[in-house]
Amino acid sequence: MQIDVVSIFPEYFEPLKLSLIGKATQDGLLQVAIHDLRSHTYDKHHTVDDTPYGGGPGMVMKPEPWGEVLDELVQPDSILVIPTPSGKVFDQKVAQQLSGAGHVVFACGRYEGIDSRVAEHYATRVKVMEVSIGDYVLAGGEVAVLAMIEAMVRLVPGVLGNEQSFQDDSFAEGAMENLVEGPVYTRPPSWRDLVVPEILTSGDHAKIAAWRLAQAQQRTAQNRPDLGK
Questions:
Q1: Model's pTM, two decimal places?
Q2: Could you confirm whether 112 is annotated as catalytic?
């Protein structure tokens, strides 16, 4: 899988060299390249934004530098992902979809966002996905892209040592699709007068599976009742 990220703050993506993503890159399962949008500007201030048509506060990212960099990166089979609060919700299904793509390009907007003609233009050439990681507004797309990359890359075959790990995750396809994961425990069996539930030390895997599902249903009803709608 090839991932290209375009941002005015390429330093934001140093964490991609760490942990699972860093190891996946070292193992050849993943290629990641970070591109500085300002390298496609030609004035002395490296300007990437301008005032919005129609007035109003804030600034809008100009289409010209985006067009230049994306023309270099986008291929016919690419998926262009643009994080924006006005996009569709990024969830586990979207992460699963992106994990199977050969090439994903992330465009990190700032200020009031990227001139809408950029998404409109590239939608005539490739699949464009405008997505949001939640009902709140960030200063830019970088944090959202880090979250999305981690969510999708861990689903790429070979990245996790035990692929059963993500099959039991919250929101995973199958029994957990509309559920969040229940409580988890490890050694010691007793800590500060709190004891691990006896069922988990019983060795009865069928009963343990049933208990975990019941706990997931209970926690979902308590914390995420919207998932049952």
A1: 0.91
A2: yes
